[in-house]
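Feature request, filed as a ticket because there's no other form

It would be nice if the structure record came with a short human-readable summary line next to the tokens. Right now we just get the raw output. Example of a typical job, pasted below so the devs can see what we mean:
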Amino acid sequence: MFAQASAEITENTKVQQTQQTESAVDETTLPINTAANQQPGTSRGATVWLFVRMILVLAVVIACIYGVLWLMKRNTGRVNNTDQFLRVVSSVTLSPGKSVQIVSLLDEKAYIIGVTDNAVNLIGEVTDKETIDAMNLYADKQANTKKPRNFNDILSIFMPNGPKEKNGNVFSNAGEKAAGLLKKQHDRLNPGK
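Raw output as currently delivered:
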């Protein structure tokens, strides 16, 4: 009995719904937007606003990318120190934020230090004059080596005539420095000659 009542209710509601939809939908009264019905300039204004908004969003995205690159360059860039009395002659990165560096002081002593994000610790000391001179010479050579800045510089290295330098020398005056260093060592080892 309950099943018959529910079946009759569902059939009655289906019949009523189809009658309502047939009588309620009159397609002639539906609004159709055609080019003749639109007001002039409405579509053009919306299109211009979308274009301007797209350009503004693109400018914001480019500014964000530029800002991130600037921050990365500022935080990862090394300070270029030109102090002749105290300088880092060698450095080895062990892991991110941890390195071992050799700092030379007036060509007399060199200190081996451990550097982390939180501390700087003295590991040892180098007192051998020849080793310190060799490290300083190597540091001078590395500092004076031209590093490629753009694709043209990289390409010129692989060209048959080698890198194009304005003065024709990759190591600027490293040869003169090496000759002076060798002369100083010769005079130190052979003081009477």
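Something like this underneath would help us a lot:
The longest strand covers residues 86-95.
The helical segments are 2-24, 42-76, 129-144, 151-157, 174-189.
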